[in-house]
Amino acid sequence: MPTESGVGTAVPIKPGALALLHTSPAHIPVFDALRDEAHQGLELRHFVAEELLARARAEGPEAVAGAVREALDRAVAEGARAVLCTCSTIGEVAERAGAGVPVLRVDRPMAAAAVAAGPRVVVIATVESTLAPTVALVEEEARRAGRPVDVRTLLVEDAWARFEAGDPDGYARAVAEAADTVTDADAIVLAQASMAPAEHLTRTSIPVLSSPRPGLAAGAKAVRER
Question: Could you tell me the end-to-end alpha-carbon distance of the chain, in angstroms, rounded to an integer?
Fold first, then answer.
């Protein structure tokens, strides 16, 4: 069951709050900073469940569907008006859980932007389990937009170990270096929210897209509309 990061006992979510379901505590300061920059006054509640990603990587995203639903039900019971899932591996499972409030994938706005950029999309990930869900999402957005799309993938195999070892700078550099090797693409998608810092380290002229900023904007909009 997810727990609220840094909170010893459950704290009710304020009415109108956006709950964020993370699989790493490293995402918390990223989304707090984006909120302070562009969505002042938006109440965020962070739920961290690292075990969901570990199990999804080992057994597949469907294996955690029940646990994800429990996490969403908890957030809704405590008053969340919307939930943003920041993990791309389990995003599809969360989105279709039917929690009674909008449940958004952090990477959907990014996928839509990639499709709008052109038909040649390269998806980069550092966790293999993220590739298939992200490719499927880009293809879904292409069908929705009535646009053709050709999706290629690139796995940065050694980068995730740096992230787990607490080396975010080395992790970002490895991702950026991989992005700079991409050619013949209209957009490069950084599939995981953890990869966002690499967006500003790349030298390629191809648009490099990350998910936290547009994902949080979508979450804020969902809260306002309810």
Answer: 26
